[in-house]
């Protein structure tokens, strides 16, 4: 496909497409070095930014703040465990229909979307159940103000 991409940008796009997984910029930089592509880290960042704006790649930001880049063909969503940090991949995308509805309007050209779920994974749910005998402190909290400060509120005024 003819494009105004630089050789480095093409290289990075091809790498992301062939990797078929998410990768952080740092990791991608190391990967390129190991595979004989002499690209500076700043160039990797800049290229990723250009490719993102061209709608060729997508970005997902982890809770740690690290941006994970991947080829746009990947339409995957994650179920993130807030306890152990494990991320499971959803089998299908529930947003395809919605994206289709948005597209014909052309007021906004959709490149990709993100959707993340947070909760407890199967094994963490199991360990939660084992801890069940721990008392729930939330429900035993009594209201500090018992309401004794208003013996008889004078409602009439004027
Ligand atoms: Zn978990
Ligand atoms: Zn999706």
Number of domains: 2
CATH 2nd-level architecture of the largest domain: Orthogonal Bundle
Strand content: 5-15%
Strand order of the largest sheet: 1-3-2
Could you state the order of secondary-structure elements as H and E?
HEHHEEEEHEH
- Our count of helices gives 5
- Give the full name of the CATH homologous superfamily of the largest domain: Winged helix-like DNA-binding domain superfamily/Winged helix DNA-binding domain
CATH topology of the largest domain: Arc Repressor Mutant, subunit A
Radius of gyration: 25 Å
Helix/strand-derived category reads alpha+beta
CATH class of the largest domain: Mainly Alpha
Helicity level? 25-40%
Topology:
Blueprint: H1 7-19, E1 23-24, H2 25-34, H3 41-53, E2 57-61, E3 67-71, E4 78-81, E5 87-89, H4 96-102, E6 116-119, H5 122-130
This protein binds zinc ion (2 copies).
Residues 81, 83-84, 86, 120-121, 123-124 line the site of one zinc ion.
Based on the model shown, name its key terms.
single chain, 158 residues, alpha+beta, Arc Repressor Mutant, subunit A, Dna Ligase, domain 1, three-stranded antiparallel β-sheet, three-stranded mixed β-sheet, 5 helices, 6 strands, binds zinc ion
Can you tell me about this structure?
α1 (7-19) packs across α3 (41-53) and α2 crosses α3 (41-53). This protein is α+β, with helices and mostly antiparallel strands and 158 residues long. The chain has five helices and six strands; from the N terminus they run αβααββββαβα. Helices cover 33% and strands 15% of the residues. It has two domains: 1-74, Arc Repressor Mutant, subunit A; 75-127, Ferric-uptake regulator, C-terminal dimerisarion domain (Dna Ligase, domain 1), CATH 3.30.1490.190. A hairpin with a 5-residue loop joins β2 (57-61) and β3 (67-71). The strands form two sheets. Strands 1-3-2 form a three-stranded antiparallel β-sheet. It has a three-stranded mixed β-sheet with strand order 5-4-6, with no helix packed on it. The radius of gyration is 25 Å and the shape is flat. Residues 81, 83-84, 86, 120-121, 123-124 line the site of one zinc ion.
